[in-house]
Amino acid sequence: MLLKRFRLRISHQIFFFNYSIPRRNACCLCCRHRNWSPKVGSRTSLLTSAFAAYARCLTRPPAKLLVLALCAGVTGVAVWGNVLLEQRFDVAWFMPPDSYVGRWFAKNRQLFPSGGDRVILYLHGLDYAGGDLERLDGLVRRLENQVRRRKRSAI
């Protein structure tokens, strides 16, 4: 129901602005012109004549070549710009500095400024319920001691 009222109101306003306003006085809408006709200059559209002249210009062979050269030049500059793009991403930027992972990244940067050597340990056949956890803890302690020794010798 509301949409029908809206459509009716819009159609009335369009009628009023298209047919009634040009025949009225600009200062006082109550006054109507009896013998009104549009001026000669307002019968032709300037935009239509401008686009017609532009279309006539673009259909000539030199203008076509200019448009093709311009498009090729812009495409070349865009491809060149894309080739020169660099991407830097560090996941530490998204970690809160007071979290465990954020502190790990800070320590990693402090202890291994050049990135260090990446080491991956593959462990299999561990008995977590048995005594293998103590052996694993000993391995961790030995690796930490090696890191401390290297740090002292580097200073």
Word description of this protein:
The chain has helices spanning 2-20, 46-58, 61-83, 100-111, 132-154. The termini are far apart. The protein has three domains: 1-32; 47-87; 95-154, no CATH class. With 155 residues, it is an all-alpha fold.
Short overview:
The protein has 155 residues and is an all-alpha fold.
Mean pLDDT: 81
- How far is the first residue's CA from the last residue's CA? 83 Å
Count of alpha/pi helices: 5
Query: Roughly how many Å is the radius of gyration?
Result: 39 Å
Major β-sheet, in short? none
SSE succession = HHHHH
Structural class: mainly alpha
Percent strand equals under 5%
The domain tally reads 3
The coarse overall form would be elongated
Share in helix: 55-70%
**Sequence stretches where pLDDT stays below 50 over 5 or more residues:** none
How many individual β-strands? 0
What key attributes describe this structure?
3 domains, 155 residues, mainly alpha, single chain, 0% strand, 5 helices
Per-chain topology:
Elements lengths: L1 H19 L25 H13 L2 H23 L16 H12 L20 H23 L1
